[in-house]
Structure formats: C-alpha cells, structure tokens
Amino acid sequence: MIQKFSLDFSDISGFALVAYDTNGFIRWRNVCCTINMTFIMMFQYSIILYCAVRMYFEMESKVQILSPSLRNLHRQFYKTLLLQVVTPTVTLFAPVSVLIYLPFFDLQLDLPFGISTSALGLYPALDALIVMYVVQDYREAMNNTFKRVINGLHILISSVDVGMTPTATFRSPAVFNS
To answer: Contact at 8 Å (CB) between 80 and 130?
Structure first.
C-alpha cells in the first residue's frame, strides 16, 4: 500500500487477509476465517437454491388454474427473480471471493481492483434492466419509447437543411406518436 498508493495501511479501514507469516508458514487462524466465510456463502446459496426449486414446483402446480397470459406473466416474474439473484453473485460476490482466496496462492499480482468497485455500482442498474428486459410488457414499452425517440430525432435531423444555418423546427406531438 505504501509503495503503490503512498498510504499507510493503519490509516485506512479495510479487510486484509495475510495467509503466510514472515517465515512462510500458513496462518491457520486466517485459514479458519476464510473457511468460515466460505461456509457462510455456501449456506446462503444453498438456501437460495432450495427456495428457488421449491418455488418453481409450487408455482407450477398453482398456476395451472390461471389463464395462459397470467401463467406467462408468472413465469416471466420467476425468471426475473432468478436473474436478480444471479446478478449480485456475478457483480458482487464473485469479485469478493477472488479477493478472499487470492492471498493463499502467494502471487504477486497487480490487479485492477477498480473493476470490482465498478461492478458494485453496476449492480443496481442491472437489477432494473433485468426487469425491463425479461417482462414482455415492459420490454415492448421500452422498445416503443426507444423507436419514438429515434424516429423523432431522425425527423428533426432530416428537416435541417445541410447548406443553411440550422433553424429550430417545432413538430406537433402527432409526429412522434406515429
């Protein structure tokens, strides 16, 4: 930390796992801490997996009485829920897991940790995008809005005369709704 960032480690808050002592022996207390974190993550994901499977079978038996369109909507929401569980795994827990286990390999790496920090900020946006992409009604509304904006921009750009000074042209709302 001092060599790369000119920061003293005691001046900042953080979690550091030192796998080996100065003599090169494994620090078993730190190994136990890592194993403990692994079991916590495994327990968490086993509960998620159990609930997902149980929910799927319960939902399949219950939605048979619903109309086909409602069944389709329930399946879309179930897919959305599953993807919303997988997204934090990929963007949050996988990078952290790499950071937890990396010290045991005693590698001298200069990893770009800004990527994992960026993944933390990416998660909320991905969560909303999943809903907009998987649920068909939201996806169609988003596509229609996008098409209207593109068509409006196309009309605006094509109305500007190339050789002349640009002038503002105001269109009625009916142009954008076509």
So the answer is: yes
